[in-house]
Amino acid sequence: MQTGSARAGAADDTRRRILDGALEALGRDPDAGMGEIASAVGVVRRTVYGYFPTRADLVRTLARQAVDEIAAVLSEINASAGSPERVWVDFLARLWPLAHRYRVLVALRRGEYGHEIHALLEPVDQSLADLVQRGQDAEVFGRHLPAPVLSQIAFSAVFAVADSSLPDALIGADAATVTSLLVLGVPDARARALAEGHA
Amino acid sequence: MQTGSARAGAADDTRRRILDGALEALGRDPDAGMGEIASAVGVVRRTVYGYFPTRADLVRTLARQAVDEIAAVLSEINASAGSPERVWVDFLARLWPLAHRYRVLVALRRGEYGHEIHALLEPVDQSLADLVQRGQDAEVFGRHLPAPVLSQIAFSAVFAVADSSLPDALIGADAATVTSLLVLGVPDARARALAEGHA
DNA sequence: TGTGCATTGCACACACGTGTGCAATGGATC
DNA sequence: GATCCATTGCACACGTGTGTGCAATGCACA
């Protein structure tokens, strides 16, 4: 406990619980109101307003958190200077749990704060587009779609798989990785090898 | 003009214009209200209520129309008893314009009337899952995901491509077809051949 | 036993979208 | 010219979600 007092720690804990609960409530219904979010956390609506002045603030915080985590993974991986295929596979391995946790994100891009979320995601989109472009230049990714579109489709496919609500273990990161590699035009045998020979 | 009078024809026309305008308004923002829909049509809110008693009615009509058109194409194609690959390609060729027109559909599956829309789409989902299952049994589609999930991913990928808002002609049906075939695990060379050698 | 702070419970005011009622308008039809 | 009917413009009631204010409660700490 590096926090000064137990009380301040409790407040921080509540804040985190609100963030988690909001993620869960919004995951079920992207239009969930402050009341439903509060219920998911196990507190009263009034309490949530004690930590986040507006619903927009709460959603923005959530989105920023998601984007930050994804961007961190992406930039870290990008620095490793491997082949585009390898970079993508490594990225997917670390993206998968995030895609599960933040599956709201894709729904959030539409509706209400969509414009704002989209702006937050722009650097991520850019990095992905660059990566796919490098892959296309290296002839390891297909050219059936322009890089900026293809990267989006491959990216959203991962979230689509994460969103398919199957018993988590039944699908797993490998399936998502293989699927996204296929979208990118990687031959299935190679996709399977890349996905499995990762550890 | 097979309608009895010119006035009745005008009313029918207004109804169709409302449907079209609603499709466009909801395409931009799935949460568009009756006011925004009316504006998109070029009439007043009150007029829309003259044709559709509630917003839910309007949305339901739209969704039913979309599902009906898709289901019609699907059942017609399915009757042609070709190979799963060929059936899928034919389906995609005819689905593409619909995916453009009804790109709202995917957004509508979430939020508010999601449950209802989902129920409407169930027969379509079932047919697609069956088709993909046949493809997997014939070893022409991959098994990286179970058929019910894989069909959904491939299907939504088409809508994702349609939704990518690129100059329509710049992408085209072929790219969408190839992409969905890749998702299904069809080798890229074969996917390209199938998509191009269609006419 | 007091003090502090997080949480609660209820009270509002407010904005917004929905759906309805009704009189007025204006163009096409007879 | 009289009539019909789609459309309009404005009125309203209603529900729902948001955000705020304030007193009451209760647990922890000193």
| CATH A-level architecture of the largest domain in chain A | Orthogonal Bundle
The percent range for strand residues of chain A is under 5%
Number of helices in the DSSP assignment of chain A: 10
- The total beta strand count of chain A reads 0
CATH domain class name of the largest domain in chain A: Mainly Alpha
Distance between the termini of chain A: 34 Å
Whole-number tally of structural domains of chain A: 2
Q: Give the largest interface.
A: A-B, 30 and 30 residues
Radius of gyration of chain A: 19 Å
Q: What is the residue-averaged pLDDT of chain A?
A: 91
Structural class by SSE content of chain A: mainly alpha
Briefly note the CATH topology name of the largest domain in chain A. Answer: Tetracycline Repressor, domain 2
Instruction: State the share of residues found in helices of chain A, binned by percent.
Output: over 70%
CATH superfamily of the largest domain in chain A: Tetracycline Repressor, domain 2
Q: Name the assembly state.
A: homodimer
What report would you give on this structure?
2 copies of one chain form a homodimer. Chain A has 199 residues and is an all-alpha fold. The first copy, chain A, has 2 domains: 1-53, Arc Repressor Mutant, subunit A; 56-195, Orthogonal Bundle (Tetracycline Repressor, domain 2). In chain A, 75% of the residues lie in helices and 0% in strands. Chain A contains 10 helices and no strands. Chain A has helices at 6-28, 34-41, 45-51, 55-78, 84-101, 104-108, 114-137, 147-162, 168-183, 188-196. In chain A, α2 (34-41) packs across α3 (45-51). Chain A is elongated, with a radius of gyration of 19 Å. The model of chain A has no long low-confidence stretch (mean pLDDT 91). At the A-B interface, α8 and α9 of A face α8 and α9 of B. The structure holds a DNA duplex (30 and 30 nucleotides). Chains A, B: Residues 33-52 bind DNA. Chains A, B: This is HTH tetR-type domain-containing protein. Chains A, B: Residues 12-70 form the HTH tetR-type domain. Chains A, B: It holds the Pfam family TetR_N.
